[in-house]
Structure formats: C-alpha cells, structure tokens
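TASK: fixed-backbone design
INPUT:
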C-alpha cells in the first residue's frame, strides 16, 4: 500500500479511487436534488465559514494553552494544520448518505470547500504557522476538477440513460463508496508508517489522539446545536450534512498540500501525524454515530410532519 508499492496508490488512490466515489455519487444522486442543493446558500455559508474560519481560529486559541505543556511542538503544529484543511471529498458524503441526510448538500459543500481550500488552506497555513513557499494552484485545481467535478457530471449523464434500471435494481452505492474509502485509509497508513523518520514519544501521541477525538465530539455537538435552533431554518436532513461536512477534514487534499507548503521541512512527517490520525478517527466516530443520528433524524422528521398536519375540526 505504500507509494510505489504493488497497489500503486499514487495512481489508484489519487485518481481512480476518488473519481470512483464521485462517479458513484453522480450515478446515485437525483439531478433535481443536486439542483435544489445549489440554492441552499445559508447552509453552504454555515459549513464553509465554520470549516475555514471558526475551526482554524478555535484550534489556534486552544493551542496557545497547550503550548505550555510538554507535548511535542511539531505535533501541536500538526493539529493547527488539521484546522486549516478544507472539507473532505468523500467521507462526509458517504456518512451523510448512510444516515439518509441531505446528500446533495454534502456533495456540493465537499466539492466547493475543496476548491476554496486550494486557495484558502495555504494562506491559513502561512497565517498560523508562517511557512512560505510557492503553491502550484493550477495543478491542484486541475486534479480536483478531473477527480471530483468530471466524474460527478459523467455519473449524472449516465444516470439519465439508466435511471429506470437504477430505480428497479437499487445497487448498493453506499457499500461501494465505503469499500473505496477503506482502501484510501489503508494506503495512507501504509505510506505513513513506512517512513523511517517518524520519531514519536508515546505520551505526546496518546494525548494528541485524545485531543483529536475531543475536538471532533465537541465540534459535532456545536454544529448540531447551531443547526437545530428554532430560527435556523434547517431541516433534520440538512443538520446531518452540516454536522459531517463542517467537522470533517480532507486527507486526500491535506497530505499533498502539507508536502508542498512544508517542502524540505525536517519535521514534515511529525506535522502530518495529527491529520493522519484525524481522518480515520472522523470516519470511525462518524460510523459509530450513524445509527444514533439516523434515529434522531427519523423521529424529528415524524414530529415535524405531525405538527404540520392540519388539525381536524372539533364537533360541537
């Protein structure tokens, strides 16, 4: 699973696997749902501002407190890089689909957030960590376009021709996406732990793992609270997309960006560790919460239907 190994992840993962996830989404998503999702501006603003403004700022404030502890300083810098990352191009969509939430909104925010991240993430890294380098925006943008937008459009075009067959057979789109994502995680871990330069003390690593799970739980709860307020105007399905898209961070974009921005850094492998922990942790935590969130969404939808039903006139 390492780069250059038998599985050739630099081709099979970087291009084929991510493209397969979005072709799968394009094939399974009803076109009218994707069109209506584009108009949900309030939801998109919430997700992008939380992900690219609130998240990195909150982490920076938190790290000011942690800087006085004996935790490895490069792992702490790595935590800041996690905060600067854009939303993922796969995991948030898969988990939203598994719950039955607003998948169209999740896809739009994943793709849109990734494109924003090409410009904003390097600027955030420069702002919070002070690294400087030239970032090849054109190559990252073209790779994103080819692996996210093009497969999604092709999936939508193919869907038009086999729509009846898809509705009749109902292929297991969720299971396919989950298998592809598992392959992405596997190859990432292979690549990381094959690096002989990683030198971690156990105390710092255990504390970082604990902090990462705590951050995820806290931010998921925070987004849930904000999106379920009485005046929020978000549906339960919207809330599911918001919770996953706002708190998940991209590994497939993150690692290449770190390699570009911190090119030549002696401690690049250590800086990368928190993101490498965060990505599988967000999928593990999200997967464990799927049944709970699903039951909440279904019960909330039923309650909303009951309140909207016209009351029968009382006979005198």
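OUTPUT:
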């Amino acid at each position: 699973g390492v780069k250059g190994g038998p599985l050739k992840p630099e081709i099979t993962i970087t291009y084929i696997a991510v493209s397969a996830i979005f072709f799968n989404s394009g094939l399974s998503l009803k076109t009218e749902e994707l069109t209506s999702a584009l108009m949900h501006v309030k939801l998109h603003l919430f997700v992008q501002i939380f992900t690219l403004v609130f998240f990195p700022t909150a982490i920076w404030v938190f790290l000011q407190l942690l800087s006085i502890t004996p935790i490895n300083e490069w792992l702490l810098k790595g935590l800041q890089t996690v905060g600067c990352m854009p939303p993922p191009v796969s995991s948030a969509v898969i988990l939203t689909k598994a719950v039955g939430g607003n998948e169209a909104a999740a896809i739009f925010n994943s793709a849109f957030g990734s494109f924003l991240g090409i410009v904003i993430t390097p600027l955030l890294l420069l702002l919070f960590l002070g690294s400087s380098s030239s970032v090849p925006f054109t190559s990252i943008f073209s790779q994103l376009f080819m692996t996210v937008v093009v497969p999604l459009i092709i999936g939508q075009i193919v869907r038009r021709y086999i729509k009846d067959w898809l509705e009749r057979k109902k292929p297991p789109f969720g299971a396919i996406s989950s298998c592809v994502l598992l392959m992405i995680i596997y190859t990432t871990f292979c690549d990381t732990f094959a690096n002989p330069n990683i030198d971690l003390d156990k105390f710092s690593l255990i504390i970082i793992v604990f902090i990462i799970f705590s951050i995820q739980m806290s931010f998921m709860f925070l987004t849930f609270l904000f999106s379920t307020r009485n005046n929020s105007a978000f549906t339960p399905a919207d809330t599911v997309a918001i919770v996953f898209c706002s708190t998940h961070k991209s590994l497939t974009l993150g690692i290449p960006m770190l390699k570009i921005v911190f090119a030549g850094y002696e401690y690049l492998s250590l800086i990368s560790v928190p993101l490498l922990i965060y990505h599988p942790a967000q999928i593990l935590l999200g997967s464990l919460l799927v049944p709970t969130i699903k039951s909440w969404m279904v019960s909330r939808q039923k309650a909303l239907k009951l309140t909207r039903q016209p009351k029968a006139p009382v006979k005198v």
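COMMENT: The chain is about 80% helix and 0% strand.
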